[in-house]
Design a protein that fits this description.
The protein has helices at 17-24, 40-46, 62-66, 86-91, 104-119, 122-130, 154-165, 179-184, 192-198, 218-223, 241-249, 289-307, 322-329, and strands at residues 3-6, 28-30, 50-55, 73-76, 96-97, 146-150, 169-173, 188-189, 201-204, 229-232, 255-258, 278-280. It is an alpha/beta fold and 334 residues long. The chain has 2 domains: 3-102 and 288-329, NAD(P)-binding Rossmann-like Domain (Rossmann fold); 104-280, NAD(P)-binding Rossmann-like Domain (Rossmann fold), CATH 3.40.50. Strand 1, helix 1 and strand 2 (28-30) form a beta-alpha-beta unit.
Length: 334
Amino acid sequence: MPKVLIATPTLAGLEGAFTDLLRREGFDVVHPRQRKVLTEPELLGELRGVSACIAGFEPYTRRVIESSPELRVIARNGVGYDAVDLAAATEHGIPVTVTPGANHESVAEHAFALLLAVARAVVPQNSALHAGGWRREAGVNLRGRTLGLVGLGRIGREMAQRAAAFRMKILAYEPFPDAAFVAQHQIALMPLDQLLAESDFVSLHVPLSPESKNMIDARALRLMKPTAFLINTARGGVVCENSLAEALREGRLAGAGLDVFAEEPPPAGHPLLAFENVVCTAHAAGIDLKARDDMAQLAASAIVTLCRGEWPADQVVNPQCRQKFEARYRGAPR
């Protein structure tokens, strides 16, 4: 019986429609021995004898892929795939799939929660009360303020709709905008530098790529208002964390809301964890209960579809592997 490894700790030990689907299709569903983000050596061990996996943020490096000869499908439980060596997967005929449309609302809701938390100083006031104090602070109003969206894809568009409900002015940096949506929501498109300079809140919604890595660096941060807040629910690598810490330390930024870090979990003593005006969560923006279940079902469906010999074109991010994948498994038993 072929095995499917539920590698992501988000789904560790969970049963549901996604495991029912896999078992109905003849798969043996297995979980890692540890409920954590697996290291490369741990992942190598867990993938022995595995045909497919539902992947989280564990590293699917070239070494892992080349050492897992039975692995046929890497189904990401989400839309980012920066933890996968896509070139190595493609060379070995392994489709990498994602779950589009399953968690963009969840991420937008969480990003807006972080925005509200930093604007209204929720965390320091909460901490003071728990410590026996009574700390009142005047929060920053959202109505009439300017939100700058870096990226106007599914998540950015959801953020824009929420900002409009708070009567915020919306700016966006987006190379390929949806013109109808932009017009409908009266969004002002502009270059990144101008957006950073004019926004009261900047929210990042771009994938991690060579172009976006350290997009928000020391130079970019100097463009922002000292009263502005930075929200990052994209990827930690989009922001130069040392430069962000320096800007906060010098009072050149009012605060930040961060769901992602360059290294996850962040190491003890990480500089950004020392600021009370930085609200942090553990890369949880995309996993509200509905999104978690929807992503798991889409990931499981992609595995089933591919192993039936069909091709889920809207989910595969490396279609160049198709010929090699089909040649490798044509006529092979599942």
